[in-house]
Design goal:
With about 260 residues, the chain is an alpha/beta fold. It is built from eight helices and eleven strands. The strands form two sheets. It has a nine-stranded mixed beta sheet with strand order 3-2-1-4-9-6-10-8-7. It has one domain: Spore Coat Polysaccharide Biosynthesis Protein SpsA, Chain A (Alpha-Beta Complex), CATH 3.90.550. It is globular, with a radius of gyration of 18 Å.
Length: about 260
C-alpha cells in the first residue's frame, strides 16, 4: 500500500523489480527504499522461477512490504520476467530496478525531478539513473540531466545503449511503442534487441550526469550476479579489443539501418 504521508511519495508510479534467486538482495532494495522515505502507488516484484527457499522469502517480504508478486513455475529468462512484470503495472509511470541495485540517499530528490520532467514533457520515453560508463553522446538539459543523442554517423559503438536495463523511469506503455522484450534468449541479447528497437522507434531518453551517485549495485558472495558472459566480450587483450570493436561497429550499424 502506498504511504501518501511518506517524505517522498510518488503518485502515478509503480516500482517494478525483476527477481531471480536473490531474495536477500530484494530485501536490501526494499528496505533502502523505505529508509529513504520513498513510497509508490504500487510495487510489483516479478520472479523468474526462483528456488523454493527464495519463494518462501518472497512471501514473507510480501507481507512486510505489500507488493504484487508475479511468478512463473519455471525460469523463462529476463525477457519474460520484464514482460509479465510490466503487464501487471497499472500506473502511468514505471520505475524499473533489478533486485541487486540499492538507492542512495541522493536518489529520492533527483527521482522527483525526473518524474516532474516526464510528466511535464511528454516526449521523454525513458530517464536513466545508472550506467557502468557515461553515454558517449550527451547534450546538457536541466536539473542534472542530459539528453542522449543518436545519429547514424556517430562512431562510438556504445551509441546503441540509448536504452539500458539499468535503473530507469519510463512510461508504462513502453511496450506498446517499442515492442515486448524478446523471450527465450540470453539476457544480453534481450537487452540488445530492445536497444535496437528503442533507436529504430525514435526513443527519447535523458541520462543523469552523476550516474554513479543514485544507485549502488551490490552482488555479495552469497548472492552473486546470475548473468554470465563469454570470455571474448570481457577480454582486455589488445587484439581482441580491436576486433571486438570493429565487429560491433559493423553489426550494430547493420542491425539499426539494414536489417528489416
Amino acid at each position: 500500500m502506498a504511504n501518501t504521508e511518506a517524505p517522498f511519495y510518488f503518485p502515478g508510479v509503480t516500482l517494478l523489480i525483476t527477481h531471480y534467486n536473490r531474495s536477500g538482495s530484494l530485501e536490501r532494495l526494499l528496505s533502502a527504499c523505505r529508509e529513504r522515505g520513498c513510497s509508490f502507488d504500487d510495487i510489483v516484484v516479478s520472479d523468474d522461477g526462483s528456488k523454493p527457499e527464495h519463494l518462501g522469502a518472497l512471501k514473507r517480504l510480501q507481507g512486510q512490504y505489500g507488493f504484487q508478486l508475479v511468478t512463473t513455475p519455471v525460469n523463462r529468462g529476463l525477457g519474460n520476467n520484464i514482460n509479465k512484470g510490466q503487464d501487471a503495472v497499472k500506473t502511468p509511470y514505471t520505475l524499473y530496478v533489478q533486485e541487486d541495485f540499492v538507492p542512495t540517499p541522493a536518489f529520492p530528490g533527483h527521482f522527483r525531478d525526473a518524474l516532474e520532467i516526464m510528466k511535464a514533457e511528454d516526449k521523454w520515453d525513458l530517464i536513466a539513473f545508472y550506467s557502468y560508463a557515461a553515454y558517449p553522446y550527451l547534450r546538457p538539459y536541466k536539473k542534472g540531466f542530459s539528453e542522449k543523442l543518436y545519429k547514424p554517423w556517430y562512431i562510438n559503438y556504445k551509441k546503441i545503449y540509448a536504452y539500458s536495463d539499468h535503473p530507469h523511469l519510463r512510461k508504462s506503455d513502453f511496450l506498446k511503442k517499442f515492442g515486448r522484450y524478446v523471450e527465450g534468449i540470453k539476457s544480453d541479447k534481450t537487452e540488445y534487441l530492445m536497444c535496437v528497437s528503442f533507436i529504430k522507434n525514435k526513443g527519447q531518453s535523458l541520462f543523469f550526469n552523476e550516474y554513479k551517485s543514485l544507485f549502488d549495485q551490490v552482488n555479495p558472495e552469497d548472492e552473486p550476479s546470475t548473468v554470465t558472459r563469454t570470455k571474448w566480450t570481457q577480454s582486455n587483450n589488445l587484439f581482441i579489443v580491436v576486433v571486438r570493436d570493429i565487429y560491433r561497429q559493423i553489426k550494430y550499424n547493420y542491425d539499426l539501418h539494414v536489417a528489416k
